[in-house]
Amino acid sequence: MRRGADRAPHGGRPEGRSARRAPAPVLTAAPQPVRRSRSKVLLSALVMTFAAGLVATLALPSYATNPSSGETDLAAGRTLAKSGEQELPAAADVVTAQLGRDAFKATTSATLLRQTYARKFASYSGPSAADFLKNPAHPPFSLDGVYSTALQYRGVPYVFGGADPSGFDCSGFIMFVYAQYGVSLPHSVHAQDGIGKPIAPEDAQAGDVVVFNDDSHDGFYAGNGMILHAPYPGARVRVQKIWTSAVHFVRFGI
Question: Quick check: is 3 in a domain?
């Protein structure tokens, strides 16, 4: 046998051995074009149409009148004022209305009250203080009663030397009211102060008398630092705050 007869020629593998096969090539399908569904195509077309219409609408000019009517702002002779308001031409027969502020006067409740009292007492012809002393209108005396009676004369004008509801001065007012309870008082601040019973400020009640320390004025104490009095010429009987601390208090009838 020839040496080397069992070898494959040209250096190949020996016969009788199975030769290794090369892997078969893998075939891939060619890419197919992606098809859009009809619904997506239709939706895209609608979006584009809407966007184009919106842009066209925003680009249109705005009009104060209908352009299709054949009249524009210039053709109608309309001009714009500096403030931006439109000035419209008026017909020749149009009459301009004249505007004005209505005039009125208001009357306060205090004025109405004074007018009521003035009408009530302006022509007073009733009893005087002397008449009441003879026949008191309110026999049961009380400070509350005195003050309630005095309140009825709010609005009566100040009259120097007055001692009835047609006009009071300060001491004449006190004298007239106390006379209705049978208490006789002189028509003088100094004299009334001299016969009154002094009381402490904290004990004073409505109906007691407030006397200014220089005897220049007096009035009914109204409580809470207030005085009911006939103030001065040109004023009327009223309630107001006591404006000075230079006062003292006296009491009558008790």
Answer: no
- Cβ density class 36-49: b for 16+ within 10 Å, e for less: eeeeeeeeeeeeee
Longest dimension (CA), the chain: 188
- Quick check: is 99 in a domain? no
What's the structural domain count of the chain? 1
123/130 Cα distance (integer angstroms):
19
CB < 8 Å & 24+ apart, contacts of 116-121: 116/155, 117/153, 117/154, 117/155, 117/156, 117/236, 117/237, 118/155, 118/156, 118/157, 118/236, 120/165, 121/153, 121/155, 121/156, 121/165, 121/166
Q: What is the CATH number of the domain that holds 244?
A: 3.90.1720.10
Tell me which residue has tokens 């009292």. Answer: 117
Cβ pair 249, 204 in contact under 8 A:
yes
Q: Is residue 95 part of a domain?
A: no
Task: Read off the pLDDT of residues 214-228 as tens digits, 9 standing for 90 and up.
Answer: 999 999 999 999 999
> Which structural domain range is residue 118 located in?
112-251
Q: Please check whether residue 100 lies inside any domain of the structure.
A: no
Q: What is the pTM of this model?
A: 0.56
pLDDT in tens, 127-176: 999 999 999 999 899 999 999 999 999 999 999 999 999 999 999 999 99
109 or 169: which leads in pLDDT: 169
Dump pLDDT digits (tens) for 33-88.
555 566 666 777 777 776 766 665 555 555 444 545 444 444 444 554 455 555 66
